[in-house]
Amino acid sequence: MVPPEDLGPRAELLTAKHAAFIKKFAENTSNFEYFATEHFRMSGVYWGLTALYLVGHLDDMDEDAIVNWVLESQHADGGFGGSPRHDSHLLYTLSALQVMALYQKLHLIDADKVIAYVASMQQPDGSFSGDEWGEIDTRFTYIALLCCALLQRPDAIDRQKAAAYIASCRNFDGGFGARPGMESHAGQVFTCVGALALADSLHLLDRDLLCWWLCERQTDTGGLNGRPEKREDVCYSWWCLSALSILGRLHWIDQDALTRYILFCQDEEEGGISDQPEDMADVFHTFFGIAGLSLMGFPGLESIDPIFALPTKIVQQLKPAAPSASSQSSEAPDV
Amino acid sequence: MHGRPRYPRPNTGDPQKLQAAEQRVQLYSRLTSTVLKRLQAGQYDKETLDLAARLLEQNPEVYTVWNHRKRALLATLSKGGDTAAEAVKAELALTQRALEKHPKSYATWHHRRWLVAQHVTSLQQEVDLVNRLLEADERNFHGWGYRQFLMELMQAAPEDEEAYAAAKIDHNFSNYSAWHLKTRLLKKVHHQSPTVTLDDLISAKSSAAAAAEERLVPFWALRQELELVTQAFYTDPGDQSPWLYHRWLLGCLLAHAQTGKNKEEIVSLLQQEVAVCKDILELEDTAAPDGKAASSIKWPSLTLAQLHELLCSVAPSSFDNEQTDVRLLYRQLQDIDQLRAGFYTDASKGSAKILVQSAT
Ligand SMILES: [Zn+2]
């Protein structure tokens, strides 16, 4: 659906409404979704809190309760579950670290244990398993590299091999899939570009070809899709944009059109942003919509780091960490 | 999170609906608590596993429950024989029920892969299942990934796989997943390309190693593919899948050019492609211009620009004056395809190379 000329009440970013929407979702424990999402709540909390930070509402939430809950979700193996009752997984280990980073409480975490868990997931071919059950995915490589960067232990894993594995997932269109031979997907592209950036290996990708494929994700609605001939969806605003931003090619898409599309997906009554206009809003798309706007420099929003997926101010305080987007600026020369 | 309409708002007003929703929440949360508590205590009896199955059928992404089911199964598998085979069969049936309702559940697909990797089940049955799924949803990348996993286990011949991809494309030229598969298989079918090892990639200073992998699909095969893709252009010149594949084919031609041999053949093939693009543009020109026409003109125009650039790089002396055409084409593209005006601006300045540079 192409946004109308006049966006009406959606012409502005309804930050207070979105903040209230996130808070309400977190606190409404009589909601079916609250229980149905328990297994990935750690990521939900990260999405919600980062969105709140970007709109200047982080203080709306109970920091102590959240920090304690995060710490409770760490298991004996060093990894974090999606919530205390769920098994360790790299996905939630990263989300836990990101939440702690937002609150500048990373020092409360037993870093050695986390690092040991993350490192134990690396396979002989350089890839990473998501947990002890052997699912391999390029998302997990990004996660492992980012966990090590957040804890300032970049050399705890074999970064060169990790990057080589990512390179082996590169496709004819310049994009990347979940495993070697799998089709390119904008979500995987974000994780692979982020992984290569964290491993100082951006030379392993074809910048122009990949960025062209990414800018071809923009449809006539202004929104972005994740693969050719698919429908646009607000979550790709983050995945495509972060990769374009890391590679210095944000100007290859029409940022005004995308901004209008994201704004049009707002719910002006209940707050929140949905995948497509007039769908039900959720915290996931609310975060990715706001994060996308932040990458495009939308006025009034805190800026977000496209590699760390955390506010730039937070990343700058992590010192001396692996390369962030601010240290390898978008103006970096082509390789 | 995807595709759920905003209106009507859930549970507004109607007290009966509200009560039903409340009940649903209570039942679900009670079931979850019971299952997790028992599983965490290592209680893997039939009743608990049945409850766990019920939970997964409602919400198959609850990975912790699949994990416990794997632990429970490992004990049974160690007994071997029919007991193991039966247990795996029942577990496969559960994942199938879950996938029917949730065909994009990561956790369920992974569980099924894990089951199949126990080597007590018929692989052919799995292939039939995934083929049916890909008939219903031809772009499901979980399905494609699972199919690839099966083909590796079965050590399927790349020729057969190529035939599968070709049939999918024949059915629908717009199936990007199948075009993608073709690019992977063409190299394997024509054993000529040097295989890139992990060590090559590690030591690579540029993407040259990866580019080397794209080298040298034989001319006769490239000619065949160009013919196929041309058919797709005439069917719908606005469909991006065949054009993206075409760019890759041109990259393969360029790789031939870099060996310094067969220059005449390469130039004649490129000129043939120039003629195809011009012909499509002429056809579109005579058709009434409407909204759809923009994308029908865009792809042949962009390809034409790239072909000119390619000809200039392959045979500089004879094609130098084509540079003006290229700039004109990019200027037109900025108007036809305004969303990507920034890209075309860079391309016309020579700072966005998606073909010539990508294969060097
Ligand atoms: Zn989405």
UniProtKB/TrEMBL annotation, chain A:
InterPro entries: PGGT1B-like, Prenyltrans, Ptb1, Terpenoid_cyclase/PrenylTrfase
Reaction(s) catalysed (UniProt annotation): geranylgeranyl diphosphate + L-cysteinyl-[protein] = S-geranylgeranyl-L-cysteinyl-[protein] + diphosphate
GO CC annotations, alphabetized: Rab-protein geranylgeranyltransferase complex
Cofactor: binding details: Binds 1 zinc ion per subunit.
A GO MF label: Rab geranylgeranyltransferase activity
Group of enzyme by EC: transferase
Cofactor names: Zn(2+)
One example of a Gene Ontology biological process annotation: protein localization to membrane
Keywords assigned: Metal-binding, Prenyltransferase, Repeat, Transferase, Zinc
Residue runs in coiled coils: none
SUPFAM superfamilies recorded: Terpenoid cyclases/Protein prenyltransferases
EC number(s) on file: 2.5.1.60
Domain Prenyltransferase alpha-alpha toroid: 13-309
Function statement: Catalyzes the transfer of a geranylgeranyl moiety from geranylgeranyl diphosphate to both cysteines of proteins with the C-terminal sequence -XXCC, -XCXC and -CCXX.
Family classification: Belongs to the protein prenyltransferase subunit beta family.
Complex formation: Heterodimer of an alpha and a beta subunit.
Protein known as: Geranylgeranyl transferase type-2 subunit beta
From TrEMBL, chain B:
Enzyme Commission code(s) on record: 2.5.1.60
GO biological process, one term: prenylation
Gene3D superfamilies (UniProt xref): Protein prenylyltransferase (1.25.40.120)
GO CC terms: Rab-protein geranylgeranyltransferase complex
Keyword Transferase found: yes
Annotated InterPro entries: Prenyl_trans_a (IPR002088)
Top EC class of this enzyme: transferase
Pfam families: PPTA (PF01239)
Keywords per UniProt: Prenyltransferase, Repeat, Transferase
GO molecular function per UniProt: Rab geranylgeranyltransferase activity
Catalytic activity of the protein: geranylgeranyl diphosphate + L-cysteinyl-[protein] = S-geranylgeranyl-L-cysteinyl-[protein] + diphosphate
Primary role: Catalyzes the transfer of a geranyl-geranyl moiety from geranyl-geranyl pyrophosphate to cysteines occuring in specific C-terminal amino acid sequences.
Family statement: Belongs to the protein prenyltransferase subunit alpha family.
Protein's recorded name: Geranylgeranyl transferase type-2 subunit alpha
Record organism: Apatococcus lobatus
Lineage, opening ranks: Eukaryota, Viridiplantae, Chlorophyta, core chlorophytes, Trebouxiophyceae
